[in-house]
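Structure tokens please, single chain.
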Amino acid sequence: MFAPALANPGKAPLAEKITAQSGNLTFFIYHHFGDKRYPTTNVAMADFVAQMRYLADNKYHVIPLAEAVQLVREKRPILEKTAVITIDDGYKSIYSEAWPVLKSFGFPFTVFLYPEGIEKGYSNYLSWKQILEMQAAGVDFQDHSYSHYRLADRPKGMGEPEYRQWIRADLARGLAVLQDRLGRKPRYFAIPYGEYNSIVMEEAKATGYEAIFSQDPGSVSSDTDVFCIPREPILGKEWASLSHFVSVLGRVDLPIAEMTPSIAAPRQNATPPVIGARLLHPERYVQSSFGIYVSELGWQQASNDKGFVSIKNTRPLTRRLNRIMISAREKDTGRLAVRVWLLMQP
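Here you go.
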């Protein structure tokens, strides 16, 4: 996690005070519900109910995943206060805890399934009987890969052709199992652990998915790439709180045209001299509010040179994983706009 990146960049007015999103929507991602055995990926049921109550009381449009993907793909107008609920892995607490709550509010949701765990009957996972019962009642199920490997970690000694085949084989196996069990082919893919590099993204796209989902925080707009849709993680203690939930609903997308460095993984201990992005709409933002956060470097004030917002860097990036977040404040609304991408070491 990189919570410091979300703490009032540029010392502008707090985005937490703003709840409506114009032309943006928020995808949420959950894992465990009311299961204290998994504190880092759990949401307490009292918090979950409060979050769903907040959406209902504040008249949010909670829409199906397929409808949201279509809005983004076709660059159609997005209503203010629009949200999508997704759940990864397929744990039993979805059936016993989350589903009754979501039914009571009438909210659609999607579960990205880990087929191997279900096929092998792991005790903490849904059964196919439960899944088919939920599907018959309108719950949407999609693909989370067969084996839930960390796909961005290339196995040692494996060249690129073999690595690509390894990814393809696991995705194909997951699709086949889900199509057989669900009676239809999954259309969407959530990357296991939210960890990706350029090869993972290329192979997942080539598999034929209509949309791909990360675990990068951020909002979604018509400028979002449908093959790298961010989702706001709701988990742990601080990030599962109602205050955090409300704050991320107040954020909006910061559209970019290109990233530096890109998601293609740098070499080990690489020292990118410049970290930044070219903005699609630089005129929308308060010029003094631009900031860039890198997991390994922290938050820094960023410069804006004709729409290229960046920081200079002299430190090597040694971590296996770094998330980069660019942020700014909208001139017209004061809302916090963010865009996040991932750098994985090979």
